[in-house]
Amino acid sequence: MSDSLRLDDKVVIVTGAGGGLGRAHALLFARYGAKVVVNDLGGSTHGEGASASAADQVVAQIRETGGSAVANHDSVADGQRIVEQALDTFGRVDVLVNNAGILRDKTFHKMDDSDWQQVYQVHVEGAYKVTHAAWPHLREQNWGRVIFTASTSGIYGNFGQANYGMAKLGLYGLTRTLAIEGRKHNILVNAIAPTGGTRMTEGLIPPQVFEQLKPELISPLVVYLGSEQCQDSGGLYEVGGGWVGKTRWERSLGVGFNPHQGFTPEDVAASWQDIGDFADAVHPKDSLEALQQMMANLQKFSQ
Prior knowledge:
Layout (H helix, E strand, L loop, with lengths): L10 E4 L5 H12 L3 E5 L13 H12 L3 E5 L6 H12 L4 E4 L14 H29 L2 E6 L2 H5 L5 H21 L4 E8 L12 H4 L8 H7 L10 E5 L2 E5 L17 H6 L1 H4 L11 H4 L1 H9 L3
Parallel strand pairs: 1-2, 1-4, 2-3, 4-5, 5-6, 6-7
Antiparallel strand pairs: 7-8
EC number: 1.1.1.-
Family: Belongs to the short-chain dehydrogenases/reductases (SDR) family.
InterPro entries: KR_dom, NAD(P)-bd_dom_sf, Peroxisomal_Beta-Oxidation, Sc_DH/Rdtase_CS, SDR_fam
């Protein structure tokens, strides 16, 4: 282990850290010197029940190896209580890893309101509650790192996961905005889209592949994103099986119609191939850059 990247005296909250990815994140943060708040309600992957044992076991494992950790058994819906425990135990909070999640997979025509709302409440509302509670403390100390857990199901879509995909891509929208708002306070915000062999993905991935997708192959990226060395913000990183890649939006140059004369659906149909032509595609980094082609078109026809 390199000594060049350390998190000594940093306080890290990892939600959903009683097993799977969260457990791997918590253990690795502790190895790198961080004090860890191991949050886990102890419910099922469907969001049912609760148990203190999952978080307690991870804390015991960290302490056995000389690390510092405390268990928290609150729901992420009570994000303020999770942050308060970090402050009461360690006096501060520096890094937040929003990892807690559930699955309620169903095809859209079979999905009921409960399936939709529970996934939203854990992934989106829960991440909001914890982050919103931690945000003032990160601003005050002028330093912080926040990592959201998105998913390829949100980026690309996945059969039977309308609720999950909605929530996960929503978290990336939150990532992008908080990265903008947090930068001047040295709060960097990034998102990962992990593929790991956990109880949430067991049965969804072929067994021979599942065995190779160890959660421990996700956590090095998360620890880096939570470190002083990381200076990037607003990024989305796909990670799994020992591979890490950065994902970005791509947009065609599009077709400009005369805004003064207007255009018809038939004009759109005639230009459809050019509208979807990704030759010389652009990659807007923010909302201002995203307006460039539209503004250029307006300027073209204003002369």
